[in-house]
Every structure is written in structure tokens, then in C-alpha cells.
From TrEMBL:
This is DUF2277 domain-containing protein. It comes from the Bacteria. InterPro entries: DUF2277. Pfam families: DUF2277 (PF10041).
Length: 73
């Protein structure tokens, strides 16, 4: 997979991941899967929607994870 996507959960990331962190990871994922660094105008809407949906799924995932030995916020 894309090596530039970093782990966003503690303890790999000492502070809580921000929405910006999650969006950057989602963008890297969509770029990798689509094969486009930047989509053509006719693909922009579906590209951006995919980034939004993956960002939301990432937020939901990180919110639901239980990390042993870590306090939940």
C-alpha cells in the first residue's frame, strides 16, 4: 500500500489525529487507488467525494478503536 500513509492511532501518533491528518491519509489512498495525483475536471467530483467518504470512515474507525492501556477520550 502507499508508504506515505502513516498510522494515526496512539501510540504510533502521540497526540490525537486531527481531521487534517485523516484527510491527508484519505487523499493519499484515493491517489494510490485511482492512479491519479490530481484528477481531470470530469473526475474531480467523484475523486473529492471519495476523499470525503474515506475521511469520515477513518474518523469513525479511530473513534471506535479501543487501545489497551490508553485512556479513551
Amino acid at each position: 500500500m502507499c508508504r506515505s500513509i502513516k498510522t494515526l492511532r496512539p501510540p504510533a501518533l502521540p497526540e490525537e489525529a486531527t481531521e487534517e491528518d485523516m484527510r491527508a491519509a484519505a487523499l493519499q489512498y484515493v491517489r494510490k487507488v485511482s492512479g491519479f495525483r490530481a484528477p481531470a475536471a470530469h473526475n474531480r467530483e467523484v475523486f473529492d467525494r471519495a476523499v470525503d467518504e474515506i475521511t469520515a470512515a477513518t474518523m469513525k474507525l479511530l473513534d471506535g478503536l479501543e487501545i489497551r492501556g490508553a485512556a479513551r477520550g
